[in-house]
Structure formats: structure tokens, C-alpha cells
Request: fold
Amino acid sequence: MRFDVVTIFPAMVQQALGAGILGRAIERRTLNVVVHDLRDFTTDRHRVVDDVPYGGGPGMVLKPEPLFRALDAIEAADESSPTVLLTSPQGTLLTQAVVERLARQPRLVLLCGRYEGVDERVRSRVDEEISIGDYVLSGGELPSLVIVDAVARMVPGVVGDEQSVAEDSFGRGLLDYPHYTRPAEIGSRRSGTVLKVPDVLLSGNHAEIRRWRKREALARTLARRPELLEQATLDEEEQGLLRDLKAQRD
Ligand code: 9D3
Reply:
């Protein structure tokens, strides 16, 4: 899969893409991410990308011409036209369902918004606007990185362990169960007690472990994100466990 990211902070985006799972996928050529400096698509001496808003008001607006020229160049690089996304607080909220839909595209172009916004006419070249949540960020670079990370994980071969992608709790609509590693006991200065790994995980009884993990995932989801249970797909055992947990709660 190919991503083109258009930004006024190419170093910030490039830097983040070098690390971890994404960095390795790019090295292996499983993933192709091309970062474009919006200023390279200006035509003036000072490489200006923003201007004051018509009608007045605070802040600056991204000028349309550099973005149009960037899109012209990116679209010319291939016969098929890529899906163009604009990061924006007004966009579709990014969810795993949106991520899975975007992952079906062979090519995505991400335009990173900045300042107060982008000239409205840029939207004529955009297929969809995406927001990553209802909080105020300084621009679209972090949202673009979030989109690339979440979508790239869906591409076969990017995450080493395909099973972990398939089993990912959010893929099933539940929160994750608790995880432990060695040591089996650790002293806590905060509580003055010894914090132990649950006995069931040390028991070697894999049927019991599976059942415990299901119960814990359901208990956490019920306590923290009960609305997720309305959409979750639960097997027979999970439906029984959830009934017990609700009865205990009430
Ligand atoms: C004054 C009204 N603000 C809009 C809600 C102005 C404004 C705030 C922040 C305009 C742009 C920005 C920069 N944010 C993004 O470009 C952005 C964003 C975000 O702030 N939160 C979550 N997702 C995204 S995607 C792009």
C-alpha cells in the first residue's frame, strides 16, 4: 500500500515513520510512504503556504495553490487516482471500522491541515475529511501519523504476527484482558503489599486461562465502556460470563 503525506513539517512526519513496526515495514518495502513538503509546491521566493482569511478574523489559512499543485504532482505519478483525505476537526471520526474501510484502498493521500484551516476550495479535491477525536491539536501531522499507523497495521505483512491483528480486542469490539510477565511477585512501595500474578495464569490450565481472560475482558468492558457491548460479537461462553457479571454488579 502507498501513502502520500503532504505537510509543512516533513521532518516531523518522516522521523516518526522510521520507528517501530512501521519503520520496519517501510524498510522491507511492504509499505511505501512518501512525505511531501508543501513548500516545495509554492512558486514564490518566500515559499509562502498561508494567508489571511477573506472577511477578516484571527489566524491564517492554508492557501489553495500549493495544495492543488501537490495533488496534481501526486496524482500524475500513477494512472489510477488515489483516495484523498484531509485531516480536519470537522471530519469523520476515525474508528476501527473507518480504518478497515481505508485499508481497502491501494493508495491514500493525506493532506495535513494547519493554522485555522485550509481554503474551502481544497475540499473539491478531497474525498473525505478525517478527525481523530474531539480535542484540539495544533495541526494535522499527528492525526495523519495516527491514520497511517492504524491503516498500515491492516495491510498483510506489516505486523509480524497476523494472529495478533486478527485477535486484536478492538477488532472484536471488547477491551483487552490484563497482561502479566515475570516476576510472579513484586513489592509495591505505594501500597506496602506484594503484587501477585493471578494464580490461574501460573496454573498451566489453558482452558481455565482462556475463560479467565474472557471474563476479565468482559468485566473491564462492562465497567469502562459498556456501550461497546451493544456492538460486540460474543460467543456462547462470553454471553454466559456477561450474564454472571451483570448479575454480580446488580
Ligand atoms: C476555533 C475552532 N477550531 C476548530 C475546532 C480551530 C482549529 C483548531 C485546531 C483549527 C485547526 C486545528 C488544528 N487541528 C487539526 O488540524 C486536526 C485535528 C484536531 O485538532 N483534533 C482531532 N483531529 C484533528 S485532524 C486535524
